Amino acid sequence: MKGIILIGFMGAGKTTVGKLLSEKTGMEHIDFDDKIVEEIGMTIQEYFDLHGEEAFRERETNVLKRYLDHNQVVSTGGGIVMRPENRELLKQMAPVVYLQTKPEVFIPRLKHDHTTVRPLVVSKSPEEIRQVFEPRIPFYVESASLVIDTDERTPEEIVHEILENI
Ligand code: S3P
Predict the structure, then answer these.
(1) 120 lines ligand 1 (CB under 6 A)
(2) pLDDT for the residue 113
(3) Which of 50, 97, 124, 153 is deepest in the core (most CB within 10 A)?
(4) What is the domain count for the chain?
(5) Residues of the chain scoring pLDDT < 50
(6) Distance, CA 63 to ligand 1 centroid (Å)?
């Protein structure tokens, strides 16, 4: 089987679902954020503070290019769809699965996730987080070959639906 790329907003479950998909399919799991953190040798928050978002996006494009001929399960960072270049690359990499989630679901998750600091949402109000999310929706839809509604579904159910539909 060819690999599977997961896209979606922060807190959509890309990492959780990616790990489970990897277990079910036997394909390796790769997390682009982890790859970038390995390369930069600091946290994403520190990198944003030092070099800014644009430099981070450049790193993201470079990782994406390295995995064009992937046969792994890939969990991307939520902002990968921001660059037109990345969206074009993603389209060449199908199946790309958009894990669709509502702000009512992902905002509380983000507030309770203390494992990672996300510079674009840390210390933001729910309304400000929505303002980051909403302009991205068409980009997620455009980049995806499959859209899965994840609200009210367990990771197991989501994985089952992905494997039935790709
Ligand atoms: C970002 C999402 C993060 C990480 C960075 C920027 C974004 O990844 O790449 O903080 O712009 O949506 P997750 O979606 O895995 O949290």
Answers:
(1) yes
(2) 84
(3) 97
(4) 1
(5) none
(6) 14
